[in-house]
Amino acid sequence: MKIIIPLFFAIFLSITNSYSQSENEKINTLIEQKKAFNKTNKNIIVFKIQIYNGNETQAYAIKRNFESDFPEYRTKIIYKTPEWKTHAGNFRTRLEADKALNTIKLKYSGAIVLEEKI
Fold first, then answer.
1. Model-level pTM?
2. Was domain 45-117 assigned CATH 3.30.70.1070?
3. How far apart are CA 26 and CA 102, in angstroms?
4. Of 39, 49, 62, 83, whose CB is crowded by the most CB atoms within 10 A?
5. Tens digit of each residue's pLDDT (9 = 90 or more) over 60-88
6. What are the tens digits of pLDDT across the range 34-62?
């Protein structure tokens, strides 16, 4: 009986060890696949809030006002012929952008959420 218990534990430990090694190999394989995928697919989707779309003078004025009202968001002016656009924030999910939009719309009613690939 004294020999059976240590033998049982030895077998149990060897089985557990071999299982964890195969799991580590699977995890390492998945990590390598993800790295390869990231090298070929560099498009990341972010969400921004467009506060203004119009002429240059007004776009810069809106940017200054917005930065004083909401200093926690980064703003940027973009020119796409023939319009000037004022964008705010870089949000990873649509939900984050929508939450910020609800607050921003109280002051800037024409604000909308845009999806952008970077």
1. 0.64
2. yes
3. 43
4. 49
5. 999 999 999 999 999 999 999 999 999 99
6. 888 877 877 789 999 999 999 999 999 99
